[in-house]
Structures are given as structure tokens and as C-alpha cells.
Automatic annotation (TrEMBL), chain A:
Membrane-spanning ranges: 12-30, 184-207
GO biological process assignments: osmosensory signaling via phosphorelay pathway
Molecular function per GO: phosphorelay response regulator activity; phosphorelay sensor kinase activity; protein kinase activator activity
Keyword DNA-binding attributed: no
EC top class named in words: transferase
Record keywords, A-Z: Kinase, Membrane, Phosphoprotein, Transferase, Transmembrane, Transmembrane helix
Name by which UniProt lists this protein: histidine kinase
InterPro entries xref list: BphY/WalK/GraS-like, CHASE3, HATPase_C_sf, HATPase_dom, His_kinase_dom, HisK_dim/P_dom, HisK_dim/P_sf, Sig_transdc_His_kin-like_C
Record domain Histidine kinase: where: 244-474
Residues annotated as signal peptide: none
Domain of life (superkingdom): Bacteria
Catalytic function, reaction form: ATP + protein L-histidine = ADP + protein N-phospho-L-histidine
From TrEMBL, chain B:
GO BP of this protein: phosphorelay signal transduction system
Domain of life: Bacteria
PANTHER family in the record: RESPONSE REGULATOR RCP1, RESPONSE REGULATOR RCP1-RELATED
Pfam families: Response_reg (PF00072)
Protein name, per record: Response regulator
Keywords, in A-Z order: Phosphoprotein
Annotated ranges, domain Response regulatory: 5-128
UniProt source species: Roseiterribacter gracilis
Length: 482, 140
């Protein structure tokens, strides 16, 4: 059993450790996924920037194409595309400013780009205005300066540079995103593996602990059964012992008693044979005969007493083995019946007896008759001859228990004897009454078997109260004990 | 006089003596064979009682050194040769279950040996009276 218990004990920390590891792996997986998502966003951002760069470049080119078209053809239909391209270029530029606000390099590029763009568009605006005003030659002269071309090339270079920067960023960010995705994947895979392993371990641990629990339970049940069997056996052993002792002690007593009687018979025969002996001898014979008779009387008295004690042990042993009944008993009727049995003595002693409403009980009739019969008997036997005896029998229910009291105005029991009176073969006070000291021992044994208790309160010279406290379901308890 | 032979199986010599004395006092003069153990008592039953003209009557104590008196009773009552032999059980116990068991096994009379000698002597004397009128079947 201890190895199983420690196995189970060892399982818990390892499970907790496993859970912690799993939490860490999950955290990494989460972080990886987040990083990966962030990288993706950056990549998208870069792509957006690149789109804007492309748009700007194409818008500037479109604007120039429209300008050239108009200057070459002198037709006004290029005005609209030029304004569109000019607007697009400005919009793309503004978007780039915003998109690359976190990138100083790109911002610097834009700072260089802005005056170029302004100058380029200013020149284009001017040539178009001159052409509109009919001064196409002047406009063409401006174009021939090649300032516009240089500006355009410069703009392209700057945009190409920006593009290259973004390409580099894209490469970096894509790589990062891939790494982050990879990391997230690995962490997730580890976490998943951890879940599988932990789940498996948990299943194994639960199965094992359940098995251990089942084994322990079975072991406990076995243990309880074994202990109960041991107790039952010990109890049976005691009962058997009491039975054998009383039985085997009786056998020699039959001999002692029998041969004492035989001896007595022989003595009488001898006395008759020597009846006519001459005087000095007859006197001696009478003297010896008297001594023999006295000895025999002692042997008989002792044997009779021993027989009574053995019978008492035998009776207790039998009572202990008897299965208790469980019937509803009207205690008023039961006590009445017990009182009728002692009616003669009650009249003789001029005692007064009062029984007030007693609660009923479920139990063994014979046991209860013996308990209260004994208590009533004692109350009458141990009365104070100088006072009138009155006996009061009362009872009350207390929850699932019932308490009965037998109160007398007898001679009482001295404090030092209050425990002794319940012991087997022990008696208290003046030995004015015949008895072996069995009654109260028997009473207590029976009350205890019903899982009750018996107590006494007494004042020498005033009286004694016996208090019997029993479960209301006394029979069920005692029946189970059997 | 009825020529029944009495077989007394009793390990306590004192009890045997008291029983025999009281049987004699009752005026019964049949032969009494005393055995202190069950084995020799049963051997006698096997060897002598079949040949005995008037049959045997068994006085049996329940506490014997070599086997329980209950077993002796069971043996006798399950043996076709002895089944008809009257068995009187004499014992110190008055345990009701034991008494009932003896009767169930076919014991004819059950007598408790009381410590009180007068009762004991009386029981044995009455047994003597019973012995003087009982007809025991001769064995085949």
C-alpha cells in the first residue's frame, strides 16, 4: 500500500510541473503567433509603401507625358489627364509621408523629393500656361533647357532609392515573418505535444490512482472484515471459555457434593451401628459424629455456593450469546408485570410504589424484564427497616433515547461502593440479604449490550436512584451486535 | 429380573461410583460394565451386546476424553446392530441446545447431573425404576 500511495503522491507534482511547462510552451506559441502577425502587418505596410512609391512615379511620368502631348499637339485634351496625374502625384506623396512617418531615411528622401516635385510641377505648370497663352515657343524653350528632364531623373532616382530601401525592408520583414511563423509553429507543435503527453500522463495517473484507491478500499474493507471477525472470534472464545469453565467446574462439584452426602449417609449408618456402645465410648462417638456432621455441613454450604456462582457465570454466558429481539414494548405494562411478581413482598413490607407514564421502547422483552426486575427486587431487598419504603419509577424520552429511573427510599449505597455494586460477585453494605453479587453485573451487561448506560445516585440513609439510559431503538442496536 | 446388561461410559470415576451406588440402591441388580473412555465402551458394545441374551442399555456421559459423547451417540444410533439399544445420556450441562441435539440423534432419556445430591440420587433411582420395567430388544 505505501508504494502506491507514494506513487500517487509523486504523480501530483509531476502533473503540476507538466502543466507549468505546457503553460510556458503555450505562451511561446502565443508570442510566436503574435510576432508573426506583427511581421505580416509590417510586410503589408512595406508593400503599401511600395505601391505608393510606384503610384507617385507613374503619376509624375503621366503628368510629364500629358505636358509633352499638349506642347507637341497644341490640343487642349491633355489638360484633364495632366491635372489628374498632378493630383495623384500629390496624393501619393502625402500618403508616403504618412506611411513612412516611422522611417527617418524615407522621410529624408521625401524631404529631398518635395522641392524637386514642386519645382518640376511648377515648371510644367508654367510651360502649359505659356502654351495656353499662345506662347508655345517660350514653353518649348523652357523644355529645351532640360531642367525638367534632370528634375524628373532626380525624382526617379530618389523614388528608386526609396523603393530599394523598401525592398530591403520587405526582405528583412518577410524573413522575420517567416522566422516568427516558424517559431509560432514550433512552439504550437511543442505545446500540442505537451498536451498530448500531459493528457496521457493524466489519464495514466488517474487510472493508477483509481486503481490504488480501489485497492486501498478493498484493503480497508478486508481489514474491517478481518477485525470484525477477530472481535467476533474473541467474543465467541470468551463465551466458550465461560461455558467450558462452568461446565467443567461443575463436574468435580457433583463429586464433592455426592460424596459429602455419601459420607453423611455412612456417618448415620455408623451412628446407628454404634448406638448401643458402652457409655464412655458412646459419648466419644457422639462428639466425633457431631464434628463430622459440622464438617459435612461446611462442605455442602461451600459447594452450594460454588454451584450458584458457576450457574451465574453460565447464565451470563448464555445471556451474552442470546440473540436480542426487537419489538415495541409498552414499558408501563412490563413494569406492572414485574411488580405483580413481587406483590407478596411489597404487601409484607408495606411499601408504596408509584409508576408514572413511561415512554415505550423497541427492544428485547426478556432483557428489559431482567433489568427492571432486578432493580425493583433490589429496591425491596435493600430497604431501610426503620423507614417506610417507597419506590418511584419514572421515565422520559430524550431525542432518540429514553431514560428510565427507579428511585427508592432504601438504605442507600456508600460513595466508595457505587462502582463496586456493578461488578460481578461484589456486594455492598451490610450482608443482610442472600445473594451472590450477580444481579447488577448482569443488569449492566444487558444495558451495555443495548448500547445504553446505567448510573446511580445515592445517599446512604436516604435512598438510591438507578438511571437507565437506552437508545429508543435498543433492539436494533443489540440485534446488530449479535 | 430382566437380564439387561448396563454399559456405563463415564470418564469421571466419582460420577460412575455415585451412579452405580444409586442404581443399586434403587434395587437394580443388573450387571454394570464401566468404561472410562468411548473407544473401549463401543468395543464392548460391539463384542458383547450382540451375544447378550437380554441386550444392552447404554448410560453415556457427554464429556469423554477420546471423543465427544454426541459422536458416540451418533455412532450407536446409526449402527444397525445397536440402533435399538436404549441410550440414556447423563451430563453436567443443562444447555438446551445440547439436550435437543441428543434427542434429535435418538437418545432415549437425558438426565442432568445436578450438583445438588438429593436431586441427583433421585434421578438415578428413578432411572433404576425405569430400568426394572424396560424391555430391551435382544439383538439379532
Amino acid at each position: 500500500m505505501p508504494t502506491r500511495a507514494s506513487l500517487t503522491r509523486a504523480t501530483l507534482p509531476s502533473l503540476i510541473g507538466g502543466l507549468l511547462l505546457l503553460a510556458v510552451a503555450t505562451w511561446f506559441a502565443y508570442g510566436g503567433v503574435r510576432a508573426s502577425l506583427a511581421s505580416r502587418a509590417l510586410v503589408e505596410h512595406t508593400l503599401e509603401v511600395q505601391v505608393a512609391i510606384g503610384e507617385l512615379r507613374s503619376a509624375v511620368q503621366r503628368a510629364e507625358s500629358a505636358q509633352r502631348g499638349q506642347l507637341l499637339t497644341g490640343e487642349d485634351r491633355y489638360g484633364e489627364p495632366y491635372r489628374d496625374a498632378r493630383q495623384s502625384a500629390q496624393a501619393a506623396h502625402d500618403r508616403l509621408r504618412l506611411l513612412t512617418v516611422d522611417n527617418p531615411k524615407q522621410q529624408a528622401a521625401l524631404d529631398r523629393l518635395q522641392p524637386l516635385m514642386t519645382a518640376k510641377f511648377a515648371e510644367m505648370d508654367r510651360t502649359l500656361e505659356l502654351e495656353q497663352a499662345g506662347k508655345a515657343d517660350e514653353a518649348l524653350a523652357i523644355v529645351r533647357t532640360d531642367n525638367g528632364l534632370r528634375q524628373l531623373i532626380e525624382i526617379r532616382d530618389i523614388l528608386n532609392g526609396m523603393r530599394a530601401t523598401e525592398d530591403e525592408l520587405l526582405r528583412q520583414r518577410s524573413g522575420m515573418a517567416t522566422v516568427d511563423t516558424h517559431k509560432a509553429f514550433v512552439a504550437t507543435a511543442i505545446a500540442a505535444l505537451g498536451i498530448l503527453v500531459l493528457g496521457g500522463a493524466a489519464v495514466v495517473a488517474v487510472a493508477r490512482s483509481q486503481r490504488a484507491l480501489r485497492d486501498t478500499n478493498a484493503g480497508l474493507e478486508e481489514e474491517v472484515e478481518r477485525r470484525t471477525a477477530d472481535l467476533r472470534e474473541a467474543n465467541e472464545e470468551v463465551q466458550r471459555f465461560a461455558y467450558i469453565v462452568s461446565h467443567d467446574l461443575r463436574s468435580p462439584l457433583v463429586n464433592v457434593m455426592g460424596f459429602a452426602s455419601e459420607l453423611d449417609a455412612s456417618r448415620q449408618d455408623l451412628a446407628i451401628a454404634l448406638r448401643d456402645a458402652p457409655d464412655p465410648m458412646a459419648a466419644k462417638v457422639r462428639e466425633i459424629d457431631g464434628q463430622i456432621a459440622e464438617s459435612i455441613a461446611f462442605i455442602r454450604a461451600a459447594t452450594t455456593k460454588m454451584d450458584r456462582l458457576i450457574n451465574a457465570i453460565l447464565r451470563l454466558s448464555r445471556e451474552g450469546r442470546r440473540a436480542f429481539g426487537n419489538e415495541k414494548i409498552d414499558m408501563n405494562q412490563l413494569i406492572d408485570a414485574q411488580l405483580r411478581a413481587v406483590e407478596h413482598q411489597v404487601k409484607e413490607t408495606d411499601a408504596s410504589i408509584q409508576v408514572s407514564g413511561l415512554p415505550p421502547i423497541f427492544g428485547d422483552r426478556l432483557a428489559l424484564e431482567q433489568v427492571f426486575g432486578n432493580l425493583i427486587d433490589n429496591a425491596i431487598k435493600y430497604r431501610d427497616p426503620t423507614r417506610k419504603l417507597s419506590i418511584e419509577i419514572a421515565g422520559r424520552a430524550q431525542g432518540d433515547r429514553v431514560v428510565y429511573e427507579v428511585r427508592d427510599t432504601g438504605r442507600g449505597i456508600a460513595p466508595e461502593d457505587r462502582e463496586r455494586v456493578f461488578e460481578l460477585f461484589r456486594r455492598a453494605g451490610a450482608q443482610t440479604q442472600p445473594g451472590e453479587g450477580i444481579g447488577l453485573a448482569h443488569v449492566r451487561a444487558m444495558v451495555r449490550r443495548m448500547e445504553g448506560s446505567i448510573d446511580l445516585q445515592s445517599e446512604p440513609g436516604a435512598g438510591t436512584t438507578f438511571i437507565v439510559d437506552l437508545p429508543r431503538q435498543a433492539g436494533r442496536v443489540a440485534g446488530r451486535a449479535e | 429380573m430382566n437380564p439387561v446388561s448396563i454399559v456405563l461410559i463415564e470418564d469421571d470415576d466419582g460420577h460412575a461410583t455415585l451412579i452405580e451406588r444409586n442404581i443399586r440402591r434403587a434395587g437394580v441388580s443388573n450387571q454394570i460394565h464401566r468404561f472410562a473412555d468411548a473407544t473401549s465402551g463401543l468395543a464392548h458394545l460391539d463384542a458383547q451386546c450382540a451375544a447378550h441374551a437380554g441386550g444392552c442399555l447404554l448410560l453415556l456421559d457427554l464429556n469423554l476424553p477420546d471423543m465427544s459423547g454426541i459422536d458416540v451417540l451418533r455412532k450407536v444410533k446409526s449402527d444397525p446392530n445397536h440402533r435399538a439399544t436404549p441410550v440414556i445420556v447423563l451430563t453436567t450441562t443443562d444447555d438446551q441446545t445440547e439436550i435437543q441435539k441428543c434427542y434429535e440423534l435418538g437418545c432415549n432419556v437425558y438426565i442432568t447431573k445436578p450438583v445438588e445430591y438429593e436431586r441427583f440420587a433421585n434421578a438415578i433411582r428413578q432411572l433404576g425404576l425405569f430400568l426394572s420395567i424396560i424391555q430391551v430388544p435382544a439383538q439379532s
